[in-house]
Amino acid sequence: MPTDLPNLLTISRIAAIPVLVVFAAVGQPWGDLAACLVFSAAGITDYFDGKIARDRGVTSSFGRMLDPIADKLLVGAALMLLVGLDRLSHLALYPAIVIMLREIMVSGLREYLAELRVGLPVTRLAKWKTGFQMGALGTLLAGDSGASVIGLGVLPVSLIGEVGLWVAAALTLATGWDYLQAGLRHAGAQDAAAAPRGETAARP
């Protein structure tokens, strides 16, 4: 049910996006810090919605459908904000591109495999990727200006965030390759199963 607590947490992740955009667009240190806090809170719900659903036995098709969508919308919005507001260095643009392309690829694979009634399980490495990705994006949204609000201006916060983004991109490539192999394996199996029928039908 959409009104179950896990699903409400997932929906809240989507609802947080316009709030995140508004705070980031303010262009003030307090706004950067607020954007970081909103993003971090939304990211934490990604852990709790799944955990609560499993613990209470209230997993649903609605939740399984919406959860990856909410994740990709949140990550995509954060990346576009950072790029659009010129909050990333030219070098950090490359891991951002890798992350966006991987998200698009995995979405396509999930859509294809769903037609075959095959799931794409989340691996332990993918969970590490998500952790580094969320931590890096939250740090970058705060930036040096947001960190100065709470007395952490002496730390190279933006640099730390960009390093985390590179780590997330490396894990993204590894997990993306695993998912791509799984998709190719199932596609090959489908073609092999369909080939004899196609050849038989082609004979006079």
UniProtKB/TrEMBL annotation:
It is a multi-pass membrane protein. Its EC number is 2.7.8.5. Pathway: Lipid metabolism; Phospholipid metabolism; phosphatidylglycerol biosynthesis; phosphatidylglycerol from CDP-diacylglycerol: step 1/2. GO terms for molecular function: CDP-diacylglycerol-glycerol-3-phosphate 3-phosphatidyltransferase activity. InterPro entries: CDP-alcohol_PTase-I (IPR050324), CDP-OH_P_trans (IPR000462), CDP-OH_PTrfase_TM_dom (IPR043130), CDP_ALCOHOL_P_TRANSF_CS (IPR048254), Phosphatidylglycerol_P_synth (IPR004570). Keywords: Lipid biosynthesis, Lipid metabolism, Membrane, Phospholipid biosynthesis, Phospholipid metabolism, Transferase, Transmembrane, Transmembrane helix. GO terms for cellular component: membrane. Pfam families: CDP-OH_P_transf. The keyword Membrane applies. Gene3D superfamilies: 1.20.120.1760. GO terms for biological process: glycerophospholipid biosynthetic process. It is found in: Membrane. It catalyses: a CDP-1,2-diacyl-sn-glycerol + sn-glycerol 3-phosphate = a 1,2-diacyl-sn-glycero-3-phospho-(1'-sn-glycero-3'-phosphate) + CMP + H(+). NCBIfam families: pgsA. This is CDP-diacylglycerol--glycerol-3-phosphate 3-phosphatidyltransferase. It comes from Neoroseomonas oryzicola. The gene is pgsA.
